[in-house]
Amino acid sequence: MLSLRDVSKTFDGPRPRRVLQSVDLDVAAGHYIAVMGESGVGKSTLLNVIAGLETPDTGTVYLNGANLAEFSDDDLTRLRREHMGFVFQAFHVLPYLSVAQNVELPLSLVGTDPVASRRRVNEMLESVGLVERRDSMPRELSGGELQRVAIARALVHRPRLVLADEPTGNLDPDTARQILDLLRRQIKDNASAGVLVTHSRDAAETVDEILTLTPAGLVGSQSRVA
Question: Cys bridge to 207: 34, 82, 180, 198, which one at CB 3.0-4.6 A?
Answer without folding.
Answer: 34
